[in-house]
């Protein structure tokens, strides 16, 4: 049990200085912050001076990067891995892997949900991800004859190679059941949190099985913090193992910052809390030198420089103030690889030489309505079946929050290009519902957004929730109430 006084509030008192703060470490650094914005993967320099769009097809919800810059991103229920500059990664000349995990499908009697929050290891050789499933069964006292059904919920962390061809549940890829939200401590172990069973420690360290001296699937129970409302989630430790951060709070609106003191088995010292009232926080990620923290909230991706934790919790100054780096972005992941250079601009083609206008032909006589007279030319009518101008996504009909969680949320798309489009509903920084539809020549389609099992659990007791809706270039928002 973590036995420390309540952490000090951090950042709110220095908010006035935030507008003029310059992140000194970012300008000279070759690091990059990967993030998701508008459904696509982007990279930014730590000072926000240069952004680089990696993907253009939309539908991405989370992103993680290795030390080399290799990216693992979640696209629907598949993990996509690729190089940020579009280099070829496959023997067949394609530029990415599209991995269907063992938890990306449903089996009779057992409903898997996943993958979620894939995190690629620093060496780029393994990807850890969260999974959930719900299993329906019966007991002698609870079965169809008694009108009763038992429901078992499980969760855990699994591992897979970037090409998806790794053996399932073998040394190096041994799954773990009970804790989720993986982040890597080097290449051989992960930090997990958010236990499903009451009484288990908040944080554990898991060894997939092929680290030096590691046992296959070894789990080390680390610590429990009774001062954290709602437990600890989404944790990450600095590379030098001096700092540790977790998301906490009943609505996951708070960050707890710890002095890690070398990591497991040392019990961390609880130093600060950050809660500035800007909604749900997620995806905390440390700079490679451990001096600055990036995280997402309702405003976008933020950066927060921190004092040195080597000997104590340090003393915050005006420099240690949160700053909004990328408005509207989510899911930051900080790595040591540089942002690729800007793509070369497409050269303008020279205008062809102008040709003299041909002599104007006389207009053909107007064709009367009815059968066409023999020998008379007919001018075809212009095609008016193209998509309407202005992409939009709207509710098909008013629906309550409870009904939407149970039956899905049907939205109407308009103004989109023909083809298959993925629609998503987002709250905070997480995609909570999604669906697909085929858009015809009219540019319109109707799509049903189905909420994930995790989202249904988290939202079922809410009185209202505001959702951001996105489908291709169509964007909107809606507030669902009980």
Automatic annotation (TrEMBL):
Q: What InterPro entries would the database entry show?
A: 6-blade_b-propeller_TolB-like, WD40
Give the signal sequence positions.
Answer: 1-30
Pro residues composition-biased segments: 338-368
Keyword set includes Signal = yes
Q: Which residues form a coiled coil?
A: none
Q: Please indicate which superkingdom the organism of origin belongs to.
A: Bacteria
Region (Disordered), start-end ranges: 326-390
Keyword annotations for this protein, in alphabetical order, are: Signal
Supply the name of the protein.
WD40 domain protein beta Propeller
Biological source species: Conexibacter woesei (strain DSM 14684 / CCUG 47730 / CIP 108061 / JCM 11494 / NBRC 100937 / ID131577)
């Amino acid at each position: 049990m973590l036995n420390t006084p309540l952490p000090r509030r951090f950042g709110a008192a220095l908010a006035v200085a935030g507008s003029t703060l310059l992140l000194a470490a970012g300008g000279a650094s070759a690091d990059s912050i990967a993030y998701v914005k508008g459904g696509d993967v982007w990279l930014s320099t730590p000072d926000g001076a240069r952004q680089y769009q990696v993907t253009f097809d939309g539908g991405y919800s989370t992103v993680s990067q290795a030390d080399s810059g290799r990216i693992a991103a979640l696209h629907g229920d598949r993990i996509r891995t690729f190089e940020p500059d579009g280099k070829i990664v496959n023997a067949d000349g394609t530029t990415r892997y599209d991995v269907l995990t063992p938890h990306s499908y449903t089996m009779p009697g057992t409903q898997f949900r996943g993958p979620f929050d894939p995190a690629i290891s620093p060496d780029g050789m393994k990807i850890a991800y969260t999974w959930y499933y719900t299993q329906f069964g019966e007991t002698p006292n609870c079965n169809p004859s008694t009108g009763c059904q038992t429901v078992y919920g499980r969760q855990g962390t699994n591992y897979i190679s970037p090409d998806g061809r790794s053996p399932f549940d073998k040394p190096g890829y041994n799954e773990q059941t009970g804790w989720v939200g993986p982040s890597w401590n080097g290449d051989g172990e992960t930090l997990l949190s958010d236990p499903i069973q009451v009484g288990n420690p908040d944080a554990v360290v898991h060894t997939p099985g092929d680290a030096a001296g590691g046992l296959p699937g070894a789990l080390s129970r680390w610590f429990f913090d009774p001062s954290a409302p709602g437990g600890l989630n989404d944790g990450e430790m600095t590379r030098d193992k001096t700092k540790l951060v977790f998301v906490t709070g009943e609505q996951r609106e708070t960050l707890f910052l710890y002095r890690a003191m070398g990591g497991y088995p040392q019990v961390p010292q609880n130093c600060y809390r950050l809660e500035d009232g800007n909604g749900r926080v997620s995806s905390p990620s440390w700079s490679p030198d451990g001096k600055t923290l990036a995280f997402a909230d309702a405003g976008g991706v933020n950066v927060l420089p921190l004092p040195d934790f080597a000997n104590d919790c340090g003393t915050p100054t005006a420099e240690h103030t949160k700053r909004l780096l990328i408005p509207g972005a989510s899911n930051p992941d900080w790595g040591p690889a540089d942002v690729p250079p800007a793509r070369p601009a497409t050269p303008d083609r020279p205008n062809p030489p102008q040709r003299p206008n041909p002599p104007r032909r006389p207009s053909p006589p107007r064709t009367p309505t009815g059968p066409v007279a023999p020998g008379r030319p007919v001018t075809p009518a212009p095609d008016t079946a193209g998509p309407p101008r202005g992409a939009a996504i709207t509710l098909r009909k008013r629906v309550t929050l409870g009904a939407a969680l149970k039956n899905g949320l049907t939205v109407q798309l308009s103004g989109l290009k023909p083809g298959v489009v993925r629609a998503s509903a987002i709250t905070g920084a997480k995609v909570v519902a999604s669906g697909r539809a085929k858009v015809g020549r009219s540019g319109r389609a109707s799509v049903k957004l189905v909420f994930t099992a995790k989202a249904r659990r988290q939202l079922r007791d809410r009185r209202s929730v505001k959702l951001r809706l996105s489908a291709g270039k169509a964007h909107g928002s809606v507030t669902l109430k009980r």
